[in-house]
């Protein structure tokens, strides 16, 4: 029997079992009519809400979420950033750990929190459903313990999202059938609202009512599908204190950059004099690294920070400056300034000083040949994406089940640990023959306890872009990054092994690389992919199978 997921020892590592609690929730997934940008359409929503319900728990708690599918389409839910120790069964990605929940069926997820503290989130993990099926998970410190920063007066959940006027299934279908790019969305949103610069929107712009002199905790989730977002509040600075369910050293900046899949906890102090704008300030979000349209204002989503009591000035809120959409330096300056909050009490658990294995992985956009060159990609090709030049094809039975039952799944275990060819990955022009990829279902299997380094190497093939790479089942330490090609002799000398941030999603800079480290101490079948939905659909994904440890099987989670 292969599925000995686990180790008692490992359990002790993850849990202080003292006071953890089990919460029960019911999610009904159903079609609901929503109106944005002057048009009404039917969207998939959980309990009728968009964004979906926020779940609250404390570190170490478990949530049992019963999901009823009352929609016409399949659904699965993933608990993004929840490590789910030894519990891949509830992780959610379709064809990786489960078959989707069919219309009329239900499925109960056990969402097992362990070391997470801060903000994580949940979202659908099949097709394009996560465009509207997503929400926040707030994880408070355990009872009797405090934030490592001054207690905020109040907190706000800020979910960044994206809206297509069209049915998202149509957007998906058109792209898949034509082989071309996805239609761009019509707006980014803050808590479901595009804000004042969009038609039929300003009455519902999200407002954060604040009192002068008070400090607020913003729990920001980027649930958008297509782009990282710069975020800023006019005349205010943001102090990041956590990201991806782990604390960071406080880092103060005029703007933040949040990639799809990332969360950022930040403090905002209402320290401005309410005049002369009537105490109104825009919070603004705009896409990074994604060419959209020439009119920059039209693509800026806004919310309003409103000082209470209002001074009655009635002026227009001030708009903050945001870095330009292609400002890679502003992007990396922010992202790679984050440091983990490690000290004597909170140690970077499982951070390998030396690794057992290094996996170098190119992260690329590619092309696939298309019959009669009739696809809508460049020169009639089909757009694709790959890791180490394998464009992942979904298996027909889910990998977790095939692996556990020792059924021959239709997947291979030969995911390469280095790129098939070394070339100048980030050169300005790339020859056509390097653009091609191949479709296959290859996973990477590792022994329990292996210390891994993974280097994500971006490439300029077809189009260089930044890629928010996300791993299920783990958080990892971001130990290094750079522009250009990774140099295995020189670059590791500059690694930060002292206080690297502990993340589950990291933006690989356009035409650059990122190095992460972690110990493979959570057995299971874990998805690894770019969190830009179009790239995932094009094949920028693979699976990490972490084998069982030596100890006997423990049925840890009851459903
Ligand atoms: Cu938030 Cu596999 O994703
Ligand atoms: Cu990507």
CATH class of the largest domain: Mainly Beta
| Coarse morphology | globular
Task: Characterize the largest beta sheet: strand count, sense, and whether it forms a barrel.
Answer: 6 strands, mixed
**The CATH topology of the largest domain:** Immunoglobulin-like
Which CATH-level-2 architecture of the largest domain?
Sandwich
Strand order of the largest sheet: 10-9-12-17-14-15
Strand content: 35-45%
Q: State the low-pLDDT regions, or none.
A: 4-16, 552-556
Bound molecules: CU-O-CU linkage, copper (II) ion
Give the count of structural domains. 3
Radius of gyration: 23 Å
Q: Helical amount among residues, as a percent range?
A: under 10%
Quick overview:
The chain is mostly beta strands and about 550 residues long. The chain has three domains: about 130 residues, Cupredoxins -  blue copper proteins (Immunoglobulin-like, Sandwich), CATH 2.60.40.420; about 180 residues, Immunoglobulin-like; about 200 residues, Immunoglobulin-like, CATH 2.60.40.
What do these coordinates show?
The chain has 559 residues and is mainly β. It folds into three domains: 8-140, Immunoglobulin-like, CATH 2.60.40; 154-335, Cupredoxins -  blue copper proteins (Immunoglobulin-like, Sandwich), CATH 2.60.40.420; 357-554, Cupredoxins -  blue copper proteins (Immunoglobulin-like, Sandwich). It has five helices and 32 strands. Strands 10-9-12-17-14-15 form a six-stranded mixed beta sheet, with no helix packed on it. A hairpin with a 2-residue loop joins strand 1 (22-36) and strand 2 (39-46). It binds CU-O-CU linkage and copper (II) ion (CU). CU-O-CU linkage binds next to strand 5 and strand 31. Its cofactor is Cu cation. Keywords: Apoplast, Copper, Lignin degradation, Metal-binding, Oxidoreductase, Repeat, Secreted, Signal. It is an enzyme of class 1 (oxidoreductase). This is Laccase. Residues 30-142, 155-307, 416-548 form the Plastocyanin-like domain.
